[in-house]
């Protein structure tokens, strides 16, 4: 159809705390240059004990609801791979915290880091069916690996909230998509573990293979040519991965992969992820926020998106930036969310990493730590209780 549908508003939130790589490097004897240059990261967001995917999601979505109202929101789709319950959708807590209308559906989606994109595509389908409605898409994750593993350096946490509707004010999402699925154990988390398992090298090559697969399907379906795009947003488990992925795509297409060209295509998309770390489902959309907030005027230009979720599913799609988008951006709030995090030392990071609720059904209030607008007040009789500050 000709109805433009896409991202009408975009807002991100992250955590109370930040761990600098100097602290991790001093602990494990690694050269900090490996983190800064080898994986392209400056710091990692760390949630306080009273923060989780729900509090970050509510914090990201609140300004969106404040700006546009909730009257037209008929659906909330919450994408995450670090869910807090096996049954109840985390989005229902957010629905409650934000006072969204009861005449709405709320659901949670999972497929590793890919499900934020599934949520966006499902939202577009719903708006296509009824263009008067808006869909609140939330992607929120806390990336956690076991202490002392290679994955530990690629942790992080953030949430992105997007309002999806007709005649979007930011980015119109185009219809063609390229998809790729392969059954592979590159990264996964069994139900009995709180940290992810990963085969690091395997995960990088699986990602690169998925880039080629999704792009191949995209071009076979009549998508745009590579040189029509002015920028590319990749899933960023660490920002160097976006460079590897774009280099792979250029080579696959027979282009010379000049480093300056790669930096021009993806440099701006890494600005926030380098500070936040891996935010799984949110990561690619944190990249989009950074691009829109930092690039010179992108009006009318095409952006390529490559969403990857281990296991694995990938999708390549395109968006075009809408005239007037700059007046809608939340650049200052985004910089503030990242800038106000409090630096913690290794001991505090470790204490937070090792902490978990006892599974005894008792009363477990959580001391107030976050300066954010929403907090996890505790676990009482196996029930999570959230509160607005
Ligand atoms: N100075 C500069 N660079 C250095 C350095 C130094 N002193 N020491 C090492 N490096 C470089 C290395 O050369 C390497 O660069 P290249 O990849 O370009 O060769 C880079 O730093 C990393 O070094 P290693 O490969 O030795 O690092 P590692 O064994 O510690 O593993 C990792 C790195 C695989 C990313 C690991 O952190 C990990 O397993 N992370 C989790 C998995 C992951 O993020 N995978 C990404 C794809 S899967 C995905 O995208 C889904 C998802 O979200 C998880």
TrEMBL record:
InterPro entries given in the database record: HMG_CoA_synt_C_dom (IPR013746), HMG_CoA_synth_N (IPR013528), HMG_CoA_synthase_prok (IPR011554), Thiolase-like (IPR016039)
Keyword Transmembrane helix: no
Domain Hydroxymethylglutaryl-coenzyme A synthase C-terminal: from-to ranges: 177-251, 265-323
Gene Ontology molecular functions: acyltransferase activity, transferring groups other than amino-acyl groups; hydroxymethylglutaryl-CoA synthase activity
Domain Hydroxymethylglutaryl-coenzyme A synthase N-terminal, chain residue ranges per copy: 6-167
Keyword Transferase attached: yes
Pfam families named in the record: HMG_CoA_synt_C, HMG_CoA_synt_N
GO-annotated biological processes: acetyl-CoA metabolic process
Keywords for this protein: Transferase
Catalytic residues identified in the record: 81 (proton donor/acceptor), 113 (acyl-thioester intermediate), 235 (proton donor/acceptor)
Binding annotation for (3S)-3-hydroxy-3-methylglutaryl-CoA: 145, 244, 278
UniProt similarity note: Belongs to the thiolase-like superfamily. HMG-CoA synthase family.
Matching NCBIfam families: HMG-CoA-S_prok
Protein name: Hydroxymethylglutaryl-CoA synthase
Organism: Streptomyces carminius
Lineage, broadest ranks: Bacteria, Bacillati, Actinomycetota, Actinomycetes, Kitasatosporales
